Amino acid sequence: MRNAPSARHGEAFLPNLSRIAGRLALAALILILCAIAVFPFYWMFVTSIRPSGQLFAYPPEILPSANSVFSTYVTIFQDTALGTWLWNSIRVALGTAILASFIGAMMAYSLSRFRFQGRGFTEYLLLATQMFPGILLAMPMYVLFSKIGLLNSLPGLTVAYLALLVPVATSLLKTFFDGIPVALEEASLIDGASRIGTFFRITLPLSLPGLASTFLFCFIIAWDEYLFAQMFVRQPGNWTVSVGLASFSGEYVTPWDQVMTAATIVTLPAAIVFLFLQRYLVHGLTAGGVKG
Amino acid sequence: MALTQTSARVAGVRTVHYADSQDRWLPAVMVLPFLLAITALVIIPLLWGIRISFTNSRIIGRAFTEAFTLANYQSILTDPDTWHSLYVTAVFSLGTVIGSIALGLVTALVLTRAFPGRGIVRTLIILPWAVPHVVAALIWQWMYNPNYGVVNYAIGWIPFVTSQPNWLSDPNLALPAIIILNIWKTYPFATLVLLAGLQSIPDELYEASEIDGAGPVRRFLDITLPGLKHVLAIVVLLLTIWSFGNFVFIFLMTQGGPAGATNTLVVKVYFEAFRFFRAGPAFAMGSLLLLVAVLLTLAYAFIVRRGNDA
Asked: Which domain of life is it from (chain B) (predicted)?
């Protein structure tokens, strides 16, 4: 972590006005930028606690209603299948994250430590798979899955997600393994430990932060994913949260207080994970292209 | 530390480290699950899709005749709809790239300044990136609501604006409306990457140019922008790739409408296959998209590598 960077980058924004005016302008700019980022979230939450009768008022109340109701957060589980969708999503995301992290860890370790033919191609494939529009994989996979009867099942969806997440997990973990000095492992090998023993005693403990981050990131991607989920799973009983949430918006009159309540509940885990992982994600996603 | 070189050729694997019995099979075993997963779930489906694109398959899931034909490619390339979709995709991607980088750069420049509460602001800025895509689409759908939406309420404050546009049903406004949503969703990423880029520009450069008497604007143009060149290239490519492949926003907000105004290539492919059951043309267009995606990825890999070598 570097210490505070110089303030000079931002100077272009502030021509030589007097100091106070400059400060005020900066403060205003900061407030505007915060509003852009936060207002939609604020609006989601305020809508979720607004009594149904006050949703369709014009002009809209910008502040939370005086008679805000939090009961929606309880009744949503009785009125909709949100509980089922959450449970489905948790199962799929957990299964995917465990499998993808495991497969990815082995491959990442191999890429990081062994030399073999086809490494360059493998690394390109890793990158490309993460870059392809999901639909390119989803359509032919749909045809194949329909032939072998993997459609309309949560295990089927979990397997489909591996296509998206194994490359992600492998790339992220490779960055981690690359950061662990080989010398530590070599020392252990010289001491007579086996390669597997070394992996479990030295490499794995050192890469636990990376494994945890990768696991969480995979979980959130699966939690967030919509295209595969709506294509592969048709029965409402097997929907994940993304598909369930999206199903609200097609209704004749959208119950926005309910929608926003469910949306807030679904957003919380994703937001928490992201705030924890943000620094490391930027590094991982840009494939080390940014020297931070 | 001297290494003994063992050439254990197992499935083309050569390892360089201390020889012991595990060398022969361990690497192969560690690579195998990955190879199985990627072959079964990525390579075979992609090849299968390309194969379908050369047949006259009409319905997804039904057996197709084996006859090789170029008819699908002919039909999509001569269909004006395809070119319209390409145009919509280009506008969507370009609009997102420009907006996201502009907003991201302003935000990043502000975040390089020291001010009280900077850490909190940095955290708040990341929130849009953290929200699930479906949730983002729902929030904005509600904000864009023509009668009760907060967006129309807000533009009512602008002098001389009296209309209440129906953002998502107006052919002229639907695409810009979704571009704004996409900018909002992606600009935190642009901000963080550009911020990392800004922080890697050496302070000495600024000090030197200050001694030379350059003003802030000069400094921004002569030092900040060139220093960000590599990072900007990365952000431009990633945002292009993500926008080009974005399905969920357009599908949920407008279904490609009104009157095809938001019908990007990805959404068009989906509807070809699942609404009109024209698998052949859908897969043909998918194969062309695959080609574009491969080229974009190669460009990205090239830029990242060049930056790392620099």
From this structure: Bacteria
d(CA B242, CA B256): 17
Angle made by CA atoms B279, B284, B287, in degrees to the nearest 5: 125
Please write the tens of the pLDDT for every residue from B39-71. Answer: 999 999 999 999 889 988 765 556 666 678 899
pLDDT of B293 above 60: yes
In chain B, positions 291-310, which contact chain A (CB-CB < 8 Å)? 293-294, 296-297, 300-301, 303-304, 307-308
pLDDT at residue A4, rounded to an integer: 46
The reply to whether omega before B116 is within 30° of 0 (cis) is: no
Q: Which two tokens stand for residue B154?
A: 């807000």
At A116 the three-state DSSP class reads: strand
Q: What is the pLDDT of residue A17?
A: 53
According to DSSP, residue B14 is labeled E
Compute the nearest-CA separation of A262 from chain B (Å).
9
Q: Does B177 touch chain A (CB under 8 A)?
A: no
Angle, to 10 degrees, between the axis of helix A256-285 and the axis of helix A154-178? 30
pLDDT digits (tens, 9 = 90+) for A207-265: 898 899 999 999 999 999 999 999 999 999 999 999 999 998 766 678 899 999 999 99
Contacts of A270 (CB under 8 A, 6+ apart): A220, A223, A224, B130, B131, B132
B252 and A263 Cβ atoms separated by less than 8 Å: no
Residue with tokens 């002229």: B172
Are the C-beta atoms of B73 and B53 separated by less than 8 Å? yes
For A108-145, the pLDDT digits (tens) are 989 988 887 888 888 888 888 888 899 999 999 998 99
**Which backbone phi and psi does B14 adopt, to 5 degrees?**
-120, 125
Residue A55, phi then psi, degrees to nearest 5: -65, -45
- Dmax over CA atoms of chain A, in Å, equals 76
Query: Is pTM beyond 0.85 here?
Result: yes
Instruction: Specify which residues B13 forms β-bridges with.
Output: A116, B10
d(CA B290, CA B228): 30
- H/E stretch holding B98: helix B80-111
Could you tell me which residues are beta bridge partners of residue B10? B13
Residue A151 contacts B, CB cutoff 8 Å: no
